[in-house]
Amino acid sequence: MEKLFEGIPLNSVSMFICVAMSTGPIILALFLALAEKTGIDPKKFGLILTNESLMEFACRGTQFTTPDGHFRLSADVVEYCAKNYPNFSPLQICGYHAREAGCTAIQELAFPLANCIAYVQEMGKRGLSIDDYASGFTWLFSASLDLFEEVAKFRAFRKIWASLAKNRFGAKNPKTMQARIVFYSGGSNLTRHQPYINIARTTIQGLAAALGGIQIMHLSSYDEAYQTPTQESGTIAVRIQQILGHETGITKTIDPLAGSYYVETLTKQIEKGVYEYLEKIEKMGGAIKAIEQGFYQSEIAEQAYRYNKEMETKERIKVGLNEFLMDQDVKVAPLKYDPDAEKKAIEAVKQLRKARDNSKVAQALENCRRTLKGTENAIPSLIEAVKAYATVGEIGSVMREVYGTYEEGKVRF
Amino acid sequence: MQRRIRVLIGKPGLDGHDRGAKLISRVLADAGIEVVYTGKFQTPEQIVGAAIQEDVDGIGLSILSGSHMTMFSKVIDLLKEKKAEDIVVFGGGIIMPDDIPPLEKMGVDKIFPPDSQTSKIVEYVKNIPSRWK
């Protein structure tokens, strides 16, 4: 962490966005430990943490331990930030990963909303009201190329969240009812073949999201199907956003497509579909139960299968992929990375273990263990652990000791 | 009557994205192939162990993390070690075109890059017996 931020004081950047679902609690601890060590007040910078780990079990798969363990830790982060750092955004509820894994627009909204309901209920148990923390939440969504469906989807979401926050959870603060949406263009909509045409695709995705009402945008680079972005492809993605923002005029009006008979019809249809799913999940006992029973997973896999069938039968056309093919493919400039990176990383951890006070680490990890077994907020114990230079792996092992290892068995198809 | 083809679809390493592996498993099963899907976070040892135990004809690895050179190499070495080289190794994921020749040289029989048509994968797996040396 210190190496990463060498020369970048935490208060020199207005906002950090950290894609850290299962590692959310540890990342929070790392930021706070670094702030303390470098003498910077954490109230002087912004931090957007993902920290929503229920989705790991449904479709992302980078969890340390069980749903119960992660849910408790994610809730600890929300509570800790609400009480100590309200300038931080402690939860980013994601539909993005489920959509990328294959689900529909309606499911992309319903699944994360159901997860959020679980967090709000938990915070209620901890004595917090929704206005105490939820204005800091952000939401992460993808977008397909179905322009009008996507506009309607984002509009439907804003309406549903505002209504849930106000009518179901008693929000009084308008900021709580205003969803802050982070939009990340879905790479699953891009192709490996004829990659440059992906530039048009991400432009359309960005356009739809902006017209639908999102706040933060990230567009994929055209070489998404090949590698992590090069300088060139990443720059093009940024320029597209700049064109959308500065040259099109679409940001001058809020909800410019409101009143369109088509968009309003689609919006209502999506709202209805989402509420139906929320009711279904409620009947199952809520998000955690639904995930443990594999409900999200089976819905997502079913849609992925349907989508593939539509492509195979050409019911769905994908330009350059199942129609308008070309023999000669463009060669994409490969990303150059250090072949010794793995060796260096392993060596760095070995050096760390030699240089640190290992008895302090053991003490700190024991403290984490003890805290996790109880009900006290675990974040302070995590801060002590990272300050002692316990590794992410070591902390993860303690989580597994207390909450168990989440295992998926073999599946016979 | 011809024995049905059996394959193991595996996800080695820490890559948590299993949309492809699950889709391929189901599409192959639709075509009458017996499929065992290992689930995520498998070591090469676990994959090879399961493949031998399940007596499969082929192992398909799904790798989106960029670690394909290492993972395929380990699986092939283990199959050699366990005298199970008759199991055909194939796979897919985020694999650059330039990596395909070295993988094939290593012993991987076929790589299906992103956007490969699932019908072509089915055809390939059905013809695995023709790949036996």
What secondary-structure arrangement, pairings included, does this model have?
The complex is a heterodimer of chains A (413) and B (133).
Chain A: E1 15-18, H1 24-37, E2 46-49, H2 54-60, H3 67-84, E3 92-94, H4 96-100, H5 105-125, E4 138-141, H6 147-168, H7 174-177, E5 181-184, H8 198-212, E6 216-218, H9 231-247, H10 261-283, H11 287-292, H12 295-312, H13 341-355, H14 358-373, H15 379-387, H16 392-403, E7 411-412
Helix pairs in contact in A: 1-15, 5-6, 5-10, 6-8, 6-10, 8-9, 14-15, 14-16
Chain B: E1 6-10, H1 19-30, E2 34-37, H2 44-53, E3 58-63, H3 68-81, E4 88-93, H4 100-106, E5 110-112, H5 118-126
Helix pairs in contact in B: 2-3
- Measured between the Cα atoms of the first and last residue of chain B, the distance is 22 Å
Percentage of helical residues of chain B?
25-40%
Name the CATH superfamily classification of chain B.
Cobalamin-binding domain
For this structure, the CATH topology of the domain at 91-312 in chain A is TIM Barrel
Integer average pLDDT of chain B: 94
E-strand count of chain A? 7
Biggest protein-protein contact in the assembly: A-B, 32 and 33 residues
Across the major sheet of chain B, the strand order is 2-1-3-4-5
- Helix/strand/pairing class of chain B, anyone? alpha/beta
Largest sheet of chain A: 4 strands, parallel
> Averaging pLDDT over every residue of chain A, what do you get?
95
**Order of helices and strands of chain A, N to C?**
EHEHHEHHEHHEHEHHHHHHHHE
Q: Remind me, CATH topology of chain B?
A: Rossmann fold
Instruction: Outline the low-pLDDT stretches of chain A.
Output: none
CATH class of the domain at 91-312 in chain A: Alpha Beta
Percent in helix of chain A: 40-55%
Q: How does the helix and strand content of chain A classify structurally?
A: mainly alpha
Task: Tell me the overall shape of chain A.
Answer: globular
Taking pLDDT < 50 over at least 5 consecutive residues as the criterion, the unreliable ranges of chain B are: none
